[in-house]
Write a structure and sequence with these properties.
Layout lengths: L29 E3 L8 H16 L10 E5 L5 E2 L9 E5 L6 H16 L10 H22 L13 H13 L4 H7 L1 H14 L4 H17 L21 H11 L5 H10 L12
Length: 278
């Protein structure tokens, strides 16, 4: 949640048919329960689709459980417990046509779904939270580009600059980005490891790390698909960060392994690449 929202996106959508997506990718099954948002289901869906597709396009063969987007009042969250319809529940704490907040919150929570979120030991949950903060930045910056040529509605075309400004403001407010620039990510993680492992939802810390990792994901976005296996070995057993990364490495397909090695290296971690599978 930011101190100031980009209010230009608060303009009501005219009753026109949404433009088609720029490619053949479509979002997986989900629905929007617009009750409590004070915005139309169609417009909320248009923003969520736009944000989600920036990520979903890199998961061509993944199948996920159906989910529902509902209004929350205690901050955005994805619930572990399914609802009576056996849907994953994503709560967004926004409304009043604050489309930037919709997009930012939805991309974060949708990333948890893509990561195969599940309960268990939370010692390394900070890393998933970092990736989800990163997903928000990545999605909004992608939307800023795509809306210039293919917005959900033609009259939303000029909102691209507002989306980009929102992402820029979010990054500029991360208080530890300068510290990481001065001492490097390896030293930063060592300094803050205890805090990260004990309070994984510290957005000042995870959001600052996300800013640093953004470049790697924007240069090689095809590796977003690697997050699909992030929780493959998650249990109640406490793991070190090194073991967590090694488990991730061992479960991803071969094409993602160099990328996982690269990300681990940014934190000063060296993990052995397993022998390629037959």
């Amino acid at each position: 949640m930011f101190w100031r929202e980009i209010v230009v996106l608060a303009v009501a959508a005219a009753p026109v048919v949404a433009a088609s997506a720029p490619d053949t990718v479509s979002m997986p099954p989900y629905r929007v329960d617009a009750g409590g948002f004070a915005d139309s289901e169609r417009d909320i869906r248009a923003v969520c689709d736009s944000a989600g597709l920036e990520l979903w396009r890199y998961f061509p063969d993944q199948r996920i459980e159906p989910f529902v987007v509902v209004r929350g009042r205690g901050g955005p969250i994805t619930l572990f417990e399914r609802n009576p319809h056996r849907e994953i529940v994503i709560q967004l704490d926004t409304g009043e046509r604050l489309w930037c907040q919709y997009a930012y919150q939805f991309a974060h929570e949708f990333c948890h779904v893509l990561c195969g979120f599940k309960p268990g030991d939370s010692s390394n949950q900070w890393f998933e939270e970092t990736l989800c903060e990163l997903a928000s930045l990545y999605a909004i910056r992608g939307m800023a580009r795509s809306w210039r040529t293919n917005p959900p509605y033609p009259h939303w075309r000029d909102y691209g600059d507002a989306l980009r400004d929102y992402a820029d403001q979010a990054m500029s407010r991360r208080p530890h980005a300068g510290e990481i620039a001065r001492i490097g990510l390896t030293a930063f993680y060592t300094r803050h490891e205890a805090a990260l492992r004990s309070l994984p939802v510290d957005r000042d810390l995870t959001g600052s790390i996300a800013v640093v990792l953004l470049d790697s994901f924007e240069k090689r976005p095809q590796h977003w698909g690697a997050v699909r296996w992030l929780n493959a070995r998650k249990t109640e057993t406490v793991r070190s960060f090194d073991t967590y990364l090694a488990d991730w490495m061992e479960t991803v397909p071969d094409e993602h392994r160099p990328f996982v090695v690269e990300i681990a290296g940014l934190f000063g971690r060296t993990i052995e690449r397993p022998v390629n599978r037959d």
